[in-house]
Every structure is written in C-alpha cells, then in structure tokens.
Design a protein that fits this description.
Elements lengths: L10 E5 L11 H18 L5 E5 L1 H10 L1 H12 L3 E5 L12 H19 L5 E3 L7 H9 L4 E3 L2 H7 L6
Length: 163
C-alpha cells in the first residue's frame, strides 16, 4: 500500500501490435525482439517491477503467434513482477468516438484480458494520451482504480496550472 506522502517511480511499457508500420508477417519478429526481452529482463532482475499496457487485440495476436510469451507473462504477473494495464480492445481516441464505441471497446478488451491471461486490470492507460472529463467518469464506471498518462503532455498544455 502506498501512502499519500510516499513518492515512487513506476516504469510502464506500451505494447501495440496494431501500429500501422508493423506488417502482419513481422509480428512474430516484433514479439521475439522486444516483448520477450522485456520479460527476460524482469526474470533476471529481482528488484525491478513494471507495468505493461497492451490492448486486447495485441494480446490476441501474441497468443496466436507466440503463446509461450503468454505463459511467461502470467508467471511474472503472479509473482508481482509485472502489472497489466488496460487500454481496451483497440487503442482508440476515446473523446473522439461515441460513448457506445468506447463502452464496447472496453467490454471486449476486458473480456480478452480475462480469457487469455485471467486478469481483470485495475489500471487503465489513456489511449493516445487524450483525456477529457467524460473519459475520467467513463474509466471510473468501468471500475478502474487509476488511470495512467504521460505527465509531459499534461504539463506542456497546462504549465500555469501546475506552478
């Protein structure tokens, strides 16, 4: 449990196999060269803990292409080395689409997380770092305990408010 007066740093990695420049036939290579080394690093470093944001779609692609990665991820998660952060089934820009699309996106994403890794994520990653007041309420309605986004984006657009 983190108390209000404690400070901490938490490294979060972003995994997105729906990135437009990744060709379908290269997905296995991306997993081999970036996803597996991340898990290998965690296995070798006892004191390191991270968060990993991965969409339901990307998790499905990993399961189809490299199911052994899923087994390794589940083992590291159960040992407390890695935290799964939700982002929905696809990484869509929430404030730009209708509520029903956001709702279906997160329902499907949560279903995939539960089905593939048997995890119901407590934290949500703000897709494309675009946040609105309605999305804060939306994430809360889905039961997420916290949302994560990059500090530099908030700060750069609100420098006067943070002084």
């Amino acid at each position: 449990m983190i108390k209000n007066d404690q400070k901490f740093c938490y490294k979060i990695f972003h995994a997105n196999l729906a990135f437009s420049s990744i060709e379908e036939e290269k997905i296995g290579e991306v997993i081999d060269k970036s996803y597996f080394p991340l898990l290998d690093f965690l296995e070798k470093n006892e004191k390191i803990k991270i968060g990993l944001e991965i969409s339901g779609y990307s998790l499905e692609k990993v399961m189809c292409t490299r199911p052994e990665w899923i087994k390794k991820f589940k083992c590291l998660h159960s040992s407390g080395k890695i935290e799964l952060l939700a982002s929905g089934y696809m990484q869509i820009i929430g404030p730009l689409v209708p509520h029903i699309i956001n709702k279906k996106n997160h329902e499907l994403g949560l279903s995939v997380y539960k089905e593939i890794v048997n995890i119901s994520p407590k934290f949500v990653y703000v897709n494309e770092q675009v946040l609105s007041g309605s999305m804060i309420d939306f994430y809360s309605d889905f039961g997420y305990e916290a949302l994560v986004m990059e500090w530099n984006n908030l700060f750069s657009s609100n420098q006067n408010k943070w002084k």
